[in-house]
Amino acid sequence: MATITNMVGSGNTSLFNNYSTQSRKSSLNSLWSNYGNFSANAATALAGLSEIKSNVSSVMSSYNTAKDTFYTEFDDNMSALGKAAENMKNLTIDVGENPITKTEEVDEDGNKITKTTYSKGMQSALDTVQDLVNSYNDTISFLKDNSEVSARVGRMASNFGDTTYRSANYESIGITVGSDGKLTIDEDTLAESIANNPDKVSSILGKGGLAGKATQHIDTANSQRDQLFPAAKSMLGNELSAAALYTGKSFINMTSISNIGNLVNMMF
Question: Residue 96 and residue 123: Cα distance in Å, rounded?
Fold first, then answer.
């Protein structure tokens, strides 16, 4: 029986070479055909992954911005309210003599108006109370506006807004409580209360009153600060984890495979 060596040695190299060439061409054609299909599919997949990766980056950027903004406003509100509460607790009411002066004047249209002037001590006391009320109202607004961020923020908003249980005390010195818990000052009534019964005003608004309650709320809020804004996964859902899965190592591997294919293509 003739061997391959015999066939080659006996001058039958053309048949062998022809078979080898055809086989090689067929294999290469199959390779390029399969690679062409893969390359096209990979390009489409990579385009989709690139878009997902871009969207994930955009979502996370928005999340981080919202989180940073929330905590900046939270800290600003707590700091402002804390300072206002301390000023109220440390206030020594000394309005001096004739703390309230009322004079009758006539305006440009000939109408009589009453002009009220306060002593320096009275004005200082009124400003301190006004600052506390403004800061307290701002904090209520901030927490209520963000109450849907998390259940903790919602509960915190309710705690700060629960001023109705002492509404009678506040109203007795010229401060009314709204249905949303915010406070409104009747300056004339408050000034009269400060002038005639400063100890009562200090009791209702000072350490044992509104300022003290504000400090308690602030301490509780600050102790829960880092748990107020939810983590990205819990806020954005499982879709974020799925997107991250397809844009992590998978994205890198797909890119590498495509590059290897291009390199092989250049070699032939």
Answer: 11
Q: How confident is the model at residue 49 (pLDDT cuts 50, 70, 90)?
A: low
User: pLDDT tens-digit profile of 120-161?
Assistant: 999 999 999 999 999 999 999 999 999 988 999 999 999 999
Provide the b/e sequence for 164-191 (b: ≥16 CB within 10 Å). eeeeebbeebbbebeeebbbebeeeebb
CA nearest neighbour of 131 among 51, 210, 27, 225 = 210
Q: Provide the pLDDT confidence category of residue 42 given band limits of 50, 70 and 90.
A: low
Q: How far is residue 91's CA from residue 182's CA, in Å, rounded to a whole number?
A: 22
**H or E, element range at 104:** strand 100-106
The pTM for the full model equals 0.70
Distance CA 255, CA 113 (A): 81
Q: Which residues contact 152 (CB under 8 A, 6 or more apart)?
A: 224, 227, 228
Distance CA 209, CA 205 (A): 5
Reduced 3-state DSSP string for 193-237 = HHHHCHHHHHHHHCCCCHHHHHHHHHHHHHHCHHHCCCCHHHHHC
Which one, of 29, 39, 49, lies nearest residue 245 by Cα? 49
Indicate the Cα dihedral angle 137, 138, 142, 144, nearest 10°: 10
Q: What would the two tokens of residue 149 be?
A: 């961020």
Question: Which pLDDT tens digit goes with each residue over 196-220?
Answer: 999 999 999 999 999 999 999 999 9
180, containing H or E segment: none
